Every structure is written in C-alpha cells, then in structure tokens.
Amino acid sequence: MFERFTEDARAVVRGAVAQAEATGERSVDAGHLLLALLERRGGRGACALAELGVADRGEAVRRAWDEARRRAGLSQAETDALAGLGIDVARIVARVEEVHGAGALAGDRRDKGWWSGRRGFGRDAKEVLEKALRIALARRERHIGDEHILLALTARPGVAAEVLADHGVTYASVTGVLDGTGRAEAG
After folding, report:
1. 64 near 80, Cβ under 8 Å?
2. Domain 2-71+121-179 carries which CATH code?
3. Structure confidence at residue 114 (pLDDT)
4. What are phi and psi of 42, to 5 degrees?
5. What pLDDT is recorded for position 115?
6. Are 25 and 35 in contact (CB under 8 A)?
7. DSSP output for 22-66
C-alpha cells in the first residue's frame, strides 16, 4: 500500500513515527498522524488545514489530544455518556494517576519492561491509513496523499475526528476546500 503514497503522505507517516518516538510511545496511533499532519507546511491536506484556519492552532489541537489521552483515549462523547450513567471519568483519571502516576491511563509510564525500540502502528492508525486508501479509491485518485489521511481522520469516529471537529474541521469542510466548492470556515 505504501508504494501508492505521495511524498507528502509518506512525510506524514514519518512524522507520526517521530511523534511517537518523541513521547517514548511504543506504537503510532491516529493522534500521531494528526499531529504530524498539523506540523506539515506542504501538501494538499496541510493546505486545507491552513485554509480552514487550523494550521496556526496546532498547540490547541495538541492540548485537546493530550487531554483525551489522559482519559485513556475516550472521546468527549464517550465521557459524557459515562457521566449519564453516573461515572465521573475525571474523578477516575485523578484517582488512577494518584495511585499509579501521571499519565498512567495514557500509557506514559516508562517502566514497562524490555522493548526492542521499533514502533509499529496501532489498530487505529492502521484503520486511518486503510480508510485513506478507500477514500482515494472512491475519489478515483491514483495515489494516496496527505489530504486522504486528513479526510480519513475526519471520517472515522473517535478522538481525532472529535478534536478536529471542535476546531471546525469536518469531512464536509475538508472536501469543500479540496474540491474548490467553497471555503468552509473553521470554528
């Protein structure tokens, strides 16, 4: 599949690996793909983010992603649903971190034992890349670009899509920018 990736898409994947390495995580997840895409300044996906006004808000997106990781990757919708059942996720996170240390639910603990050092891709990152392929095929495009990765991040339910939507980036707004059907304003 990677032979079909454009140089911009490959740069996003390499950037995601670098994001995982920088935080000492063992696998690349969808958030790493999102953060790598936000750091890019070339490519159609990065340009779409810039046109939607999100390129300059990378730190806000990173903070939102980090907060979701502290909640063990639960989206705000999932957190709200649990609250409806009387489960206070913030209280649980605080208690777990009190006992096991900051970042315990995010996988930030460094005492996990031996590890070879090669980062694989987690299930959600693989799903994003597979979705990017399906989107490229559906759009009858021959290669997978960083714009397809961005579209895949917005199309899959989960924290990445939620964080992007909170900043006004949805599948429809990205498609509008890419197809030139109008500039959608990010919120």
Report:
1. no
2. 1.10.1780.10
3. 42
4. -120, 170
5. 45
6. no
7. HHT-SEE-HHHHHHHHHH--SSHHHHHHHHTT-GGGHHHHHHHHH
pLDDT at 5 over 90: yes
Q: Which two tokens stand for residue 152?
A: 């895949």
Q: At what angle do helices 44-51 and 171-179 cross, to 10 degrees?
A: 110
- pLDDT, one tens digit per residue, over 149-178 is 999 999 988 888 888 988 889 999 999 999
- Higher per-residue confidence, 77 vs 110: 77
Q: From 13, 42, 46, select the one nearest 30 (Cα to Cα).
A: 13
Rounded CA-CA distance 43/100 in Å is: 41
CA distances from 150 to 34, 164, 172 (A): 8, 10, 12
pLDDT in tens, 45-78: 988 998 998 877 778 888 887 787 777 777 777 7
Beta carbons of 75 and 82 less than 8 angstroms apart: no
* Residues 157 and 41 sit within 8 Å (Cβ to Cβ): no
